[in-house]
Specification:
The protein is an alpha+beta fold and 139 residues long. Helix content is 24%, strand content 37%. The protein contains 3 helices and 9 strands, in the order βαβββαβαββββ. A hairpin with a 2-residue loop joins strand 7 and strand 8. It starts with 6 loop residues before the first strand and ends in a 5-residue tail after the last strand.
Length: 139
């Protein structure tokens, strides 16, 4: 049986830009950075969640993805159509202020939702994430 999710893919068009954003702006740690056989395997994750690695996967043609598909995926990224997940935070408003100060782009200010306080952030490629302080979580 499946026990947990260990890796998730975030599509990027520049791994150096992705490294800078996820490590220096979001505060993630590098879990793996290996450039062997002409392919860079770069993963990051939140310091408090050791069992999850986000693969910062370059959007380039490969045996698994044709040039046409890469072009379509890049177009979707540029249009902001790629929601990539949810980041849980203890205090959404404080995280919003801190990340905004570091240059992270948000789609708007934090708002109250039925499930908690939420703000939507965008990476340099167009992937967007919901950043949520669950209802009932203390700040």
């Amino acid at each position: 049986m499946i026990t947990h999710l260990s890796h998730a893919t975030i599509w990027v068009t520049d791994q150096e830009v992705a490294h800078d954003f996820y490590v220096h702006k979001l505060g993630f740690e590098v879990r793996m950075d290996d450039d062997s056989e002409g392919f860079r395997w770069l993963t990051v994750g939140p310091p408090q969640q050791k069992d999850l690695e986000l693969i910062l996967m370059p959007l380039t043609p490969s045996p698994m993805m044709s040039e046409d598909v890469v072009s379509q995926m890049k177009s979707l990224l540029e249009k902001g159509a790629m929601g990539a997940g949810v980041f849980r935070v203890d205090d959404c408003r404080a995280a919003y202020a801190s990340l905004k100060e570091r240059g992270v782009v948000f789609k708007g200010e934090p708002e109250e939702r039925p499930y908690g306080t939420e703000a939507l952030l965008v990476d340099p490629f167009g992937n967007w994430f919901s950043m949520v302080q669950p209802r009932g979580a203390t700040s």
